[in-house]
Amino acid sequence: MNKSENTAVVAVSGGMDSCVTAAIANLDYNIAFAHINYGQRTEQRELKAFNDIADYYNVKKRLVIDFTHLAQIGGSSLTDKKIEVTKADLTNKEIPSSYVPFRNANILSACVSWAEVLNASAVFIGAVFEDSSGYPDCRPDFFSAFEKMIDAGTKPSTKIKIETPIINFSKEEIVKKGIELDAPLHLTWSCYQNEDEACGVCDSCALRLRGFRMAGLEDPIKYKTRPVYI
After folding, report:
1. What pLDDT does residue 5 have?
2. What's the pTM value of the predicted model, to 2 decimals?
């Protein structure tokens, strides 16, 4: 089967991890991009990044879904402004305030529904195991279990794999892979709380900044402050 006959749905948040995942999927698949608005603080900026990345790859099939129920459910500093976005602590092993309850299951469910309609053979998601100390839905066994659920809950003819190509990468390796594949990292957005200049002090900014520093490169996006993370 050639690339044009081999379709994959890629969950693209607009962040660096999903961008590099899209670059990897683009090597072997005709890609369709899915994006979820769920009332996060940086919803509009992430949506812009999603469309910019889709334009870069000339993606024609785009699906933007509003999951307003995640904001209504709350429980996360990303969706509830009464909960503070905590400053970065890269040694923390507890579930952080930014965890959106069962978010990846919601995202994958939508992507699988669309993939079944498109007759796609894979769904790509940019989950990273490095984040999993805080996010239980980023662990490899979660995705293995979800794939079994797909087999049980779709048509007998439907065969969809969950692909997590960077799940065992460090942020440094993700940056290097992005550069290797000419992924548009300059178009991505990772900050949890700002939409104009990245804050530089949330966990997501810290992981990203450390990844670029360890790769020996400077992050091309604008930051309000650029701490050096070890």
Report:
1. 78
2. 0.96
